[in-house]
Amino acid sequence: MNLQAASILWGDPRYSARLHERLGAAAPPQLTTLGNLGLFDLPKTALFCSAHCPGDAVLATYDQAARWRDSGHCVVSGFHSPVERECLQILLRGEQPIIICPARSLPQRVPPELEKPLASGRLLILSAFAARENRVTSALATERNEFVAALADEVWFAHITAGGELERLSKRVASWAAPPPQAT
After folding, report:
1. Helices then strands (H, E): number in the chain?
2. In sequence order, what are the residues at sequence separation of 6 or more whose Cβ sits closer than 8 angstroms to the Cβ of residue 88?
3. Which of 15, 71, 98, 174 has the most beta carbons within 10 angstroms of its beta carbon?
4. Is the pLDDT of residue 3 over 80?
């Protein structure tokens, strides 16, 4: 696969105004992309789930992912927690657009399961991190989650562990006067 990465600088007209509005000076100075940049302009739902999630919330989240897949809804996430990773697998079985935001720079190699969605134009891999950030850390994951939430039109929390990073993020999202976060 010979897709080329592209950069979008802070002042570029393709750079999301929503990121400027919600993150202000903390907005990343540059985004690095691989895939269909047109997905950047679609209405997007951000998906988040704590790493530890009760069974009833897991099942409800998988059902929601299937509804998004079947309705053609664009989902953006880091797809990092176990539930988020399984949701990505559900979404990859559809034809709807997906935006993956790793908590690091763009991967050096595209995983095989992402090659076909990238080639068909329904996938965008979007990183807010410099090339030197090639390992995921909890600090980068926290920053990435705020970036994903700021980018989205709506935010869907599958499960929030009390006192965890997603609880803090849900309060930040509420401060942006976005639609209230949904929890199951």
Report:
1. 6, 8
2. 77, 79, 98, 100
3. 98
4. no
